[in-house]
Specification:
Structural class: mainly beta
Largest sheet: 6 strands, mixed
Strand content: 35-45%
Distance between the termini: 41 Å
CATH superfamily of the largest domain: Immunoglobulins
CATH topology of the largest domain: Immunoglobulin-like
Number of strands: 22
Number of domains: 2
Order of helices and strands: HEEEEEEEEEEEEEEEEEEHEEEE
Helix content: under 10%
CATH class of the largest domain: Mainly Beta
Oligomer: single chain
Number of helices: 2
Length: 332
């Protein structure tokens, strides 16, 4: 049974646009509504820690090989990384170490520990397993635990303060012991913001992000002429090119429509127009069966007469992934 509201919408759309979209027998057009776009970000997978087996002992000083593994910089901070591997059997470490920055003569530079510049991805105990000792330039591997420290490396952040050259780092891990690592030349350190210390952690498990909801393929059917100040009534046909139904009520895509003059320079008319489809009325989009949607775009009264291209983009949240365009629309 044909929904009378959809059937009426189809009649209105065809009458407004002229013979622009040859509907097949019994096909209806989903009515247009000015629905606000849903810009909620798509869910992403959170980093997951490697589980520590029950009964795993806490590491001792003799259980660990440690090394300076790399340096980097970001946001006016120097970032210095360290890693630990096991010697004989699996053990665990946890928490952020206590860090002391030393000059080349081994004297304490007086930096206070603080939270790291980049927040920790993981928390909780980290598993350390027997393996080769870590070394500089090698990324953190599974079975190793590492952490990163940071300090301000730009004088603008600590006006009037003299910088210090860090020659070594003393690292004290609770319930384990203390290590001292010599450093190669690193950026000058300024003490006003202390030293950020990250928590000991393994590399996060690789967890696949949830798949994005499928987006149908669009095609546009629009009149070839319109007057400035009028509503441009056109039709978009969406086709599900997957092998499974797309329930638009559960995953409603957003669309962006645009009239663009002078294609070579890409000058848009009237800014961006982003809305949500009328998904409640559309329901389920079956594989291979096109569904038509009435569309309305208000042409500004001050639109300069000339040729324009009509663009229709569709996607999830603010990521437009499918695109369609028409032949030239003439504004009189």
């Amino acid at each position: 049974m044909v929904n009378p509201v959809l059937a009426l919408a189809a009649t209105v759309a065809i009458a407004a646009c002229g013979a622009i979209h040859p509907l097949t027998a019994g096909q209806v057009t989903v009515p247009w509504l000015p629905l606000p776009a849903d810009m909620t970000p798509l869910p992403v997978s959170s980093p997951q820690a490697v589980p520590v087996p029950p009964g795993t002992p806490v590491c001792t000083l003799a259980d660990l090989d440690g090394a300076f593994t790399g340096r980097n910089g970001a946001g006016g901070h120097a970032l210095v990384s360290f890693a630990f591997s096991g010697r004989s059997w699996a053990c665990q470490v946890e928490g952020a170490p206590a860090v002391t920055l030393l000059d080349v003569a081994g004297h304490d530079l007086g930096f206070k520990d603080r939270a790291p510049f980049f927040p920790d991805e993981l928390s909780g105990p980290a598993l350390v397993e027997p393996g080769p000792a870590p070394f500089e330039g090698e990324g953190l591997k599974y079975g190793q635990a590492g952490f990163t420290i940071d300090w301000v490396s730009q004088p603008e952040a600590c006006l009037g303060e003299n910088g210090s050259h860090v020659g070594a780092v003393r690292v004290a891990i609770a319930n384990v012991g203390t290590f001292t690592f010599q450093l190669p030349p690193t950026p000058v350190a300024y003490a006003c913001q202390g030293v950020g210390v990250g928590a000991l952690a393994e590399p996060p498990l690789q967890v696949e992000a949830p798949p994005e909801p499928p987006v149908p393929d669009p095609a546009i059917f629009a009149p070839t002429k319109i007057r400035a100040g009028e509503q441009l009534n056109y039709v978009v046909t969406l086709t599900n090119s997957t092998k499974l139904p797309i329930d638009l009520r559960q995953h409603c895509p957003n669309y962006e429509e645009e009239l663009v003059a002078n294609l070579a320079q890409g000058q848009p008319l009237g800014g961006k127009h982003i809305y949500a489809l009328n998904c409640k009325a559309a329901g389920v989009l079956e594989p291979g069966r096109p569904m038509s949607f009435a569309m309305v775009l208000q042409v500004p009264r001050d639109a300069v007469p000339g040729s324009y291209d009509l663009y229709f983009n569709i996607g999830n949240a603010n990521a437009m992934t499918k695109f369609a365009t028409t032949a030239v629309v003439q504004i009189d």
